[in-house]
Amino acid sequence: MSNPAPRVHTETITALDGQRFSFRMIEVLGGDFMMGADDKAANYDEKPIHQVNAPTFWMGEFPVTQVLWQAVLGENPSYFPGLDRPVEQVSWNDVTKRFLPALNVHCGKNYRLPSEAEWEYAARGGIHHSLYGYAGSNRLKDVGWYAENSHGETKAVGLKQPNALGLFDMSANVWEWCADHWHDNYKGATKDGSAWIEMGEEGRSRVLRGGSWYLYNPIYYRVSYRGSKDPGLDSDSVGFRLVLSSLQ
Length: 248
Description:
By secondary structure, this protein is of the alpha+beta class. It is about 15% helix and about 20% strand. The protein has one domain: paralog of FGE (formylglycine-generating enzyme), CATH 3.90.1580.10. It has four helices and ten strands. Strand 1 and strand 2 form a beta hairpin. The two termini are about 30 Å apart. It comes from Haliscomenobacter hydrossis (strain ATCC 27775 / DSM 1100 / LMG 10767 / O).
């Protein structure tokens, strides 16, 4: 029996200028998966492979676009202008302390960043889990914008092939912030899909996933590859994606 097609929720908000704007969230049904990697290409920080029981959640079909950021905050910080491109030059602090609270006022919901486990589970296809190296294919050019095809810039979202859940741009285009603090490996990692947070370490680096437009080596775009950045720093290669635990 085949797995059901993911459900889609359309969220509509009224922008600061009065215009109405919609974006889509994809349901990611919960399940068990093996997180990390131990193949020859795997880094130490991708080990050990461990089982995670991911909850059901909803994830943005695309990384947050410039038009959505602008609709919520009335500004566009991006280096590469284009309303359908991912917003970038936003720090973890910008996202969690400015954008998400404002969006949640608009929507009456609790939008947040994904945990690292949720991000990897969704990139792998959730219950449609595949063995693809990248999010939706073993051919990076089919799913992502990276140094060989990006022409040195971000691209509009949704132009490449999605993964099995219908999520676009999970590999490349922009790195995506996750909620978790950075850890050098997975020893002691949470196994319930929640973010791995160290209390009292607000300034500690946060996890990045997915790779970005400027990198050549395909290793950076593997679904298990991990990056990190200081939460107060931004970059023209870093954006983010929305998650909801529930539509209620």
